[in-house]
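Hi everyone, sorry if this is the wrong subforum. Our group has a chain we'd like a structural model of before ordering constructs, and none of us has done structure prediction before. Sequence below.
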Amino acid sequence: MKLMFKQRFFSWFDSYDIYDENGNTVYEVRGKLDWGHRLEVYDHAGRYVATLKEKVLTFLPRFFIQVDGETVGTITKEFTFFRPSFSIDCNGWRVEGSLFEWDYRILSGDGRVVARIEKKLFNWTDTYSIDVEEPQDSLMALMVVLAIDAVKCSQRAG
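Answer:
Right subforum, don't worry. Here is the predicted structure as tokens:
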């Protein structure tokens, strides 16, 4: 399953539209006013699905994933010098990034590729392609991309 992640051009808070390979809206992400990043995910029918919430005042960026009001995992940026890396305490996944932080792979605990994430260059807004191996992993893969983009956004601002 392939998803296209595209940030809206003029939005006060981070807002994104997530499309499938046929251009159909799969998810809508709405940024909410909060201390740190808070992104709510809605399905194509406008129903709430999940929240990504940043924990503030930590040495390394950390995000909580909430589904149906329950925290199901965290995503934490790891301290590295050359290649970005994120640990995920949900599903046993880990994230490895390329040297220039444009491409990422989500790997399962046994090293299987769960998803490939590619930042599309030369766009007005942040745009990513998310190639998810199994459709049931699409929401969690999206949450990972949202966390990566939030970290990169904070690094540009600071």
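For your construct planning: The chain has a mean pLDDT of 84. DSSP finds one helix and twelve strands in the chain.
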